[in-house]
Design brief:
248 residues; alpha/beta; 5-stranded parallel β-sheet; 5-stranded mixed β-sheet; binds S-adenosyl-L-homocysteine
């Protein structure tokens, strides 16, 4: 069967994998993706094709070649495969580098739980009203594009989720993003740092735009920002944060 399924395994361990995705992994003969994900999922039946996160287009073309040879291939991303992940790379390769032998490969993308969902659920409903997701990585787009989006999103009063917020090679981008937001939004706007959600080293910090310290954040973190009506609410001994569903 010439099949290529693009799947996402959620933000952490097996309890985040949807039943549909679990079944697709069982049916696949070949798993393609970032090595550590494959180690987590593969059984001895599977042929694994680990590769680095930076060679996405090559990995996509290689996966299509495998499927064209008659293998059942699952291309694996973390979280949801359509959110800053492999589904777009596969569509891009089909669009720009299509090869005749790929024509009869059955191609399907399947949803997974994304980091923003897992992180938002931990603290209540910070994305409870209109929101947008922005990757702060300027590896694939110039910082001017990101800065413009941040400003316009703040002016449009979207709640926001920042992926790829900060790494050792990109140490300043989150600080700059927060400065841009401070110029547009009240200091008490809720900000949440949620790191490694669902994993043993998970931590979550609820703070405000005025007080958020970008140096606490690394690449395992997703950053959530409430809209102008975002609020904290106390229940029992816990605090939650939400963006109300109306502007009334
Ligand atoms: N496709 C993935 C996103 C890949 S981009 C998804 O849908 O979630 C990688 C970024 O996702 C990381 O830099 C981080 O911002 C976020 N991320 C992934 N797993 C996470 C987790 N368990 N906790 C918090 N953020 C996570």
């Amino acid at each position: 069967m010439k099949r290529l399924d693009v799947i996402g395994v959620g933000p952490a361990g097996p309890e985040w994998v949807t039943p549909e995705t679990r079944e697709l992994i069982e049916q696949a003969t070949d798993l393609v993706g970032y090595g550590p994900y494959l180690d987590r999922l593969a059984s001895e039946r599977h042929q694994c094709h680990p590769s680095d996160n930076r060679v996405e287009l090559e990995r996509a073309a290689g996966a299509l070649d495998l499927a064209a040879e008659g293998r059942s291939v699952a291309v694996v991303s973390g979280g949801d495969p359509g959110i800053f992940a492999m589904a777009a790379a596969l569509c891009e390769v089909l669009d720009h580098q299509a090869r005749p032998e790929w024509a009869d490969v059955e191609f399907e993308v399947h949803p997974g739980v994304s980091a923003l969902q897992a992180a938002a659920a931990r603290v209540g409903a910070p994305l409870g009203h209109d929101f947008c997701a922005i990757s702060l990585s300027d590896n694939l787009k110039p910082w001017s594009v990101i800065a413009n989006r941040l400003q316009l999103a703040a002016r449009a009063d979207f709640a926001m989720a920042f992926y790829n917020p900060r790494s050792s090679s990109r140490p300043w981008q989150l600080g700059e993003a927060l400065s841009l937001l401070r110029a547009e939004q009240p200091g008490e706007t809720p900000v949440v740092f949620a790191a490694a959600v669902g994993r043993p080293d998970e931590w979550v910090r609820m703070t405000t735009l005025a007080e958020a310290d970008p140096t606490e954040v690394d690449m395992r973190t997703v950053v959530l920002v409430g809209n102008s009506r975002g609020r904290y609410v106390r229940h029992g001994d816990r605090w939650f944060v939400y963006s109300p569903r109306d502007y009334v």
